[in-house]
Amino acid sequence: MPTVEPNSPHFNADVILVLDGDQASALSVVRSLGRSGLIVDVASAFQSPICASSRHIRQCLRYPDPLKNESDFVAWIDNQIQTGGYALIIPVTERTLAPLLRNREAIDDARIAMAPSDALEQVLDKERTVALATALNIPVPRSWSIDSLDQLDSAATELDYPMVIKPSRSVGHGNGSGVQLSVSYAHNRDDLEKQVRHALNHGAVILQEYFRGDGVGIELIADHGEIGFAFQHRRLHEVPLTGGGSSLRCSEAIVPALLEAARALIKALHWHGVAMVEFKYDARTGEFRLMEINGRFWGSLPLAIAAGADFPRMLYELLCEGRIAPRPPAQEGVVCRQLARDVDWLEHVLRRNAPASLVSLPSWNDVLHDSALVFSPRHHFDVQSLSDPKPGLIDLGRIIGTQVNRVSNLLRRRWQLTQQRRRARRACSNPQVKSVLFLCYGNINRSALAHAYAAQRLSSSVSLMSAGFHAQGGRPADPVMVATAAEQGIDLSAWQSTTVDAAMLASADLVLAMELPHIDRLLEEHPEASGKTFLLGGASATSGNDVEIIDPYGLSPDTYHAVCRQVIRSVDAWFNHAQHRTER
Asked: What is the number of other CB atoms lying within 10 angstroms of the CB of residue 301?
């Protein structure tokens, strides 16, 4: 990543563009650079991102969603480079960083805050990161990389349970769109095989031992492989409880062994820019394991800035001025809370939503102690700030609104689902149905399965169709559902999706959707279909909890199997009733 040179008539050394404006970490970048006297624009794929309300921005822009339309996003960035006059464009998450890296040769990347390509490719690929650490004698969890089920038996004999299953990359692609992938855990051999089979549909998988310890990060900025400034934080709360993004974390003294491990990695990568090297650390024994390297700004960035480690300002100095100005070490004992996520953390704790084999749930005293930290002068919030109050007030309003909406929506949905059960039970006894349309969002999972199963089960006297709202037709079925359906003797191997249209609706006597939002959307566009549109799950539901059939795309293999069973049970319920009525 070269230092930015003012070689364009559009160049303005004081103007910065920050991407991913819906993230709290992006807000921290905006505030840091704005307080430094720079002009900051922010951009996001979403409407009304949290950064748009900050007093530190000049304008808020919107770009195409890189997970849905990468080429349009890259073209948008290229246009900003050519015409926006930005000294620096800062991607904050992998949603924007990864596509820019893949298309680096097609754009003028001198003004994009990305590390050198080889280094960035290496840290984005968890398998290559582990290999580098191993070569440098840095402790890593015992790991086994596999790209096919044939390799599973060998790996399973080397590791104990619980076992961590990591996708090699955080974002997978398939069926014309991206999907955010996550870490999962296996507690026995059967569980392991299901989880791995599912994860392999999105690429290679890393199996790792589960190492108990605190999540600790060494945050740093490096100048061509030499660390210019470093900071350490420890996670106090994580969501989910088994390990994930932190909602409460504190600054602390740097552990020399962790810093030396980070230094060796950064030097080997010849890293240029910001990074966070993440470890699991057992303070009782001094043992640690490298987890991963984040090659961009990280979620706990607000804590670093609150403690005096102003990494956004340092990045600007490095890339636009050529050197990082000296500054004192960051303060220890500073605490920072992501309020919205911490509300989720509290809910997980109250529901005891974590396996005991992985997590020691906090006591009530622990919860009260951590809640009381808000009264400490060293406590800060990621979003709430007296000097830039509007984003914090909006965030607080969203939190309150989310909770109020959850309660009101829960009550409304319960009523709607009860009505759907009653309507479905009346409608499924109608023997006059000759044409059925199954409907979901993409027509590659639920409605495809329902169509294929009904075609096997019903006589040719019933005409069957299925479709989805997704604009792109002709897509194959989700490969995970293809495998799941095959176990039930249902063939989706040659499936091609269809987009719903008015002609299909007009020809259908019965429309069976999967979720209430599908019905809402359909009737908004085609209100004439209201009398013949129902939820597929309504006929077989025994309670309000199983009237809808959720979209399993990107979720666990257990979810796919549950959805498959529910679809089969629901199709049987609809047409068993009708068949029984006809025979009578």
From this structure: 28
